[in-house]
């Protein structure tokens, strides 16, 4: 699925840009998608946390703008950094 491959690339880029980000979830509420359960380590300031949240939201927003059907694939999923 093109959307899934594209999403994986976007997420890899997001985790590369945000080294303190360990994971997050996307949930649906009232037919809208929300980012939740953001895992960051070590603890960051509220400003740094906000910047990471904005980066996640922008990444997902851009993906949905390019490929609206990605919403079905995103909702209810948790994404985590892959350690090697």
What does this protein look like?
Helix 1 packs antiparallel against helix 2 (46-66). The protein has 3 helices and 3 strands. The protein has helices at 2-17, 46-66, 70-74; strands at 21-29, 32-40, 77-80. A hairpin with a 2-residue loop joins strand 1 and strand 2. The protein has a 3-stranded antiparallel beta sheet. It is globular and about 35 Å long. The protein has one domain. The protein is an alpha+beta fold and 84 residues long. The relative contact order is 0.24.
H/E element string?
HEEHHE
What is the straight-line distance between the termini? 25 Å
Mean pLDDT level: 88
Assign the structural class, choosing from mainly alpha, mainly beta, alpha/beta, alpha+beta, or little secondary structure: alpha+beta
Q: What count of helical segments does DSSP give?
A: 3
> How big a fraction of the residues is strand?
25-35%
Radius of gyration: 12 Å
**Principal-axes shape call:** globular
Strand order of the largest sheet: 2-1-3
The count of domains is 1
* Total beta strands: 3
Largest sheet: 3 strands, antiparallel
Task: Give start-end ranges of low-pLDDT stretches.
Answer: none
Q: What is the helix fraction of residues, given as a range? A: 40-55%
